[in-house]
Amino acid sequence: xxxxxxxxxxxxxxxxxxxxxxxxxxxxxxxxxxxxxxxxxxxxxxxxxxxxxxxxxxxxxxxxxxxxxxxxxxxxxxxxxxxxxxxxxxxxxxxxxxxxxxxxxxxxxxxxxxxx
Length: 116
Hints:
Layout: E1 16-23, E2 26-35, E3 40-48, H1 57-71, E4 76-80, H2 86-91, E5 95-98, E6 105-109
Parallel strand pairs: 3-4
Antiparallel strand pairs: 1-2, 2-3, 4-6, 5-6
């Protein structure tokens, strides 16, 4: 990833949860879930290996992130999506809050039936 600092202190905060998607015993994707408040999580550093993209692994990764977020008691998620990934997140039920930004801010409620 361009600009990623693997020594950044945020990666070591106890409120931030690094997640790894495995397939056939090999790592294929990653995300980090940061607990930003009592019920709010921020999804960061979402990535699938380039040669494995467009095979449904991103969808699986985000389903697992959402499941884990519910498990730790979160009710709402936010992500600063890459502009080219905005449609992907929308297909998963995320709503753009600020699409005028370089990285649109998107949100998703983890409570079924709740209006965004």
